[in-house]
């Protein structure tokens, strides 16, 4: 599974917004674009979707820009990715289609594996808030699985 630039850039820009939002002063997209090295026109497209998704609100006029619609601890990374229409899937099959990815229209033998991986990615991204990203509380969330022999030895 590969997250496209749309999803990655949206999360980067939202994390930048959360990190630089101070008091009542909104953050300009030009500032985010410069700090994150993302095209301003691309950010404008992403923020239109984020605004429609209810994650940010715009402030017009001199000194205008964007603000988070709620505290960063209440915004999930999965919410950001979904708001910019980024699918969180790992299969080759079209989402929601009963037709599989093989030439005969059947699902491949590993379909369930990749579908579950997509679900697990969504669960993980739903467990991480924008505040977690900004405060660098993401590392260490994953715990390695015990190997079969280690589990039996411990029992």
Description of the structure:
- The structure is a single chain.
- With 155 residues, the chain is mainly α.
- It has a domain of 95 residues: Winged helix-like DNA-binding domain superfamily/Winged helix DNA-binding domain (Arc Repressor Mutant, subunit A, Orthogonal Bundle), CATH 1.10.10.10.
- 47% of the residues lie in helices and 5% in strands.
- It is elongated, with a radius of gyration of 19 Å.
- The model has no long low-confidence stretch (mean pLDDT 84).
Distance between the termini: 35 Å
What's the CATH architecture name of the domain at 5-87 and 129-140?
Answer: Orthogonal Bundle
What amount of the residues lies in strands? 5-15%
Uncertain spans, ≥5 residues at pLDDT below 50? none
In short:
The chain has 155 residues and is mainly α. It is 47% helix and 5% strand.
Please write out the topology:
Blueprint: H1 5-20, H2 29-36, H3 40-52, E1 56-59, E2 65-68, H4 77-83, H5 111-127, H6 130-134, H7 148-154
Antiparallel strand pairs: 1-2
Helix pairs in contact: 1-2, 1-3, 1-4
What tags apply to this protein structure?
47% helix, Arc Repressor Mutant, subunit A, single chain, 155 residues, 7 helices, elongated, two-stranded antiparallel sheet, mainly alpha
């Amino acid at each position: 599974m590969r997250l496209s630039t749309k999803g990655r850039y949206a999360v980067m820009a939202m994390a930048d917004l959360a990190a630089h939002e101070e008091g009542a002063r909104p953050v300009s997209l030009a500032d985010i674009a410069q700090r994150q090295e993302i095209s301003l026109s691309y950010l404008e497209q992403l923020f239109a979707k984020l605004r429609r998704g209810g994650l940010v609100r715009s402030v017009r006029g001199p000194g205008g820009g964007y603000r988070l619609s709620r505290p960063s601890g209440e915004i999930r990374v999965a919410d950001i990715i979904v708001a910019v229409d980024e699918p969180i899937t790992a299969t080759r099959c079209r989402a929601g289609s009963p037709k599989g990815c093989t030439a005969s229209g059947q699902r491949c033998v590993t379909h369930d594996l990749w579908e579950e991986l997509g679900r697990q990615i969504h669960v993980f991204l739903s467990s991480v808030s924008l505040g977690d990203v900004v405060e660098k509380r993401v590392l260490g969330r994953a715990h390695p699985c015990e190997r079969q022999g280690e589990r039996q030895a411990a029992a």
